[in-house]
């Protein structure tokens, strides 16, 4: 593994609490934020459409309720546990860094280039990408106004 050989001196694999449990602090002394590849951790349940359509309305509602609660719990617990993990990582000598704005902008542009290329080749991806871009543009209004 490159981390064991000392070929890589920085890492951000999942979230601080997960990375701490995996022992990354013993292998990499630098930790960079934000994690471009994973701004949030969510679990998903994928059900075959025919099987889902065959469920009763009660069964569908039960699955929806459990999945929705799982997302709420996961987001709340995840947010609540990261600062303690960061404190531990820091106390064990890991240096915490924030990516410079220029690097974040380059990552965003590169991702948009790839996503636009993929959208040109795949109608399903194009539909989802268009929806996400619209949501992000609309959400930017709230994000800007609610920023302290």
Task: List the keywords.
about 150 residues, mainly alpha, about 65% helix, globular
Written description of the protein model:
The protein has 148 residues and is mainly α. It has a domain at 100-148. It is 65% helix and 5% strand. The chain is built from six helices and two strands, in the order H-H-E-H-H-E-H-H. The chain has helices spanning 2-5, 16-22, 49-53, 57-91, 101-121, 123-146, and strands at residues 30-33, 95-98. The protein has a two-stranded parallel ribbon. It is globular. The protein starts with a helix and ends with a helix. The mean pLDDT is 89.
Instruction: Report the major sheet.
Output: 2 strands, parallel
User: How does the overall form come out from the CA principal axes?
Assistant: globular
What series of H and E elements makes up the topology? HHEHHEHH
Low-confidence residue ranges = none
- Could you give the count of β-strands? 2
Helix content: 55-70%
Give the CA-CA distance, first to last residue.
42 Å
**Helix-and-strand structural type:** mainly alpha
User: How are the strands of the biggest sheet laid out side by side?
Assistant: 1-2
Number of helices: 6
Beta-strand portion reads 5-15%
Average of per-residue pLDDT values: 89
The Cα radius of gyration reads 20 Å
């Amino acid at each position: 593994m490159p981390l064991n050989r000392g070929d890589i001196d920085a890492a951000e694999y999942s979230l601080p609490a997960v990375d701490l449990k995996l022992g990354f602090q013993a292998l990499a002394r630098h930790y960079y934020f934000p994690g471009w590849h994973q701004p949030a951790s969510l679990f998903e349940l994928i059900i075959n459409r025919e099987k889902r359509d065959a469920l009763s309305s009660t069964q569908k509602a039960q699955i929806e309720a459990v999945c929705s609660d799982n997302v709420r719990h996961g987001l709340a617990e995840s947010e609540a546990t990261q600062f303690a993990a960061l404190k531990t990582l820091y106390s064990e000598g890991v240096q915490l860094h924030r990516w410079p704005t220029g690097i974040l902008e380059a990552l965003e542009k590169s991702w948009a280039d790839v996503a636009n290329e993929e959208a040109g080749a795949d109608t399903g991806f194009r539909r989802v990408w268009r929806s996400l871009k619209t949501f992000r543009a609309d959400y930017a209004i709230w994000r800007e106004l609610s920023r302290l």
